[in-house]
Amino acid sequence: MGAPLISFAQRACKLKTLKPPRTIVVKVIASSIRKGNIIELELGLYAVISAESFFPGKGTPTTQIDCRRLSDGVKTQVRYRTTEQVEKAFVEDKDYTYLYGDDDGFTFMDQENFEQVIVPKDVMGDQAVYLQENMVVRLGLYNGIAVTVILPQRVTLEIVETEPVTKGQTASSSYKPAILSNGVRTLIPPHVTANTRVVINTEDGSYVERAKD
Fold first, then answer.
1. The CATH number of the domain where 137 resides is what?
2. Hey, what long-range contacts does 115-122 have (CB within 8 A, 24 or more apart)?
3. pLDDT per position as a tens digit, 24-83
4. CATH of the domain at 84
5. Which of 46, 80, 83, 185 could connect to 30 by a Cys-Cys bridge, CB 3.0–4.6 Å?
6. How many domains, the chain?
7. Is 0.90 topped by the overall pTM?
8. In a domain, 20, yes or no
């Protein structure tokens, strides 16, 4: 009976020391890279903060990518020809429910298994002002680490302060400034008053319509 036991122990030991699976990457052209993508560079994996392509009248079109290294948060900027190939890593997208924010970041809960994930403040960025309790968002996860956050395109907020229409405004510029309940400043139609609930676009903070609730 000794031989089978030794053989089993050896196999178990080998299983424990297996290397983790390699990152799944595909090669794409630089101009297709978008915010939230994960790319593989010489010094590791990076989350894309922004990507912009430039097409000069003369010269070679280029794509500039600002990114943050996943291992330590170090930021860098790289530039490619728009048609140059970049290695893009696989990111899992999944719905999570927002719970709360604190000094550590923003805590979300998996809707399926109730596990919690903390999203760092620098990953959440300026869109944190639109977070609402129990809001369902889509997180981009790489090896269980949240690297991107996609909010609902629209949220409902209340106008806490607004100003009268300035004299001399034309019909084409008849919007007036307002402050929303989350502190964001926006422009609203002149007939909308304080304490009104309105629908706001989370991408640019613009007014959409009066809330129907």
1. 2.40.50.140
2. 117/141, 117/144, 117/146, 118/146, 119/146, 119/149, 120/73, 120/146, 122/68, 122/73
3. 788 999 999 998 788 999 888 898 888 999 998 888 999 999 998 887 778 999 999 999
4. 2.30.30.30
5. 80
6. 3
7. no
8. no
Same domain, 31 and 82: yes
Please give the distance of CA 52 from its chain centroid, rounded to a whole number.
Answer: 16
Closest CA to 202 of 145, 144, 166, 157: 157
Q: Compute the C-alpha angle 58/63/69, nearest 5°.
A: 155
What confidence score (pLDDT) does residue 10 get? 40
Same structural domain for residues 78 and 31? Answer: yes
Spell out where the chain has E strands.
25-29, 38-41, 44-54, 62-69, 75-81, 85-89, 92-102, 105-110, 116-119, 136-142, 145-150, 154-162, 176-180, 185-188, 197-201, 207-210
Q: Residue 162, class by beta-carbon neighbours within 10 Å (0-12 exposed, 13-18 middle, 19+ buried)? A: buried
Domain contains 134: yes
In Å, how far are 32, 39, 81, 89 from 55, measured between CA atoms? 14, 22, 10, 26
Residues in the chain: 213
> Which of 126, 150, 174 finishes a domain?
150
The angle subtended at Cα 179 by Cα 173 and Cα 184, nearest 5°, is 100
Q: Tens digits of per-residue pLDDT, 106-161?
A: 999 999 999 999 998 888 888 999 999 999 999 988 878 888 888 999 999 999 99
Cβ neighbourhood burial of 96 (10 Å; 0-12, 13-18, 19+): buried
12 assigned to some structural domain? no
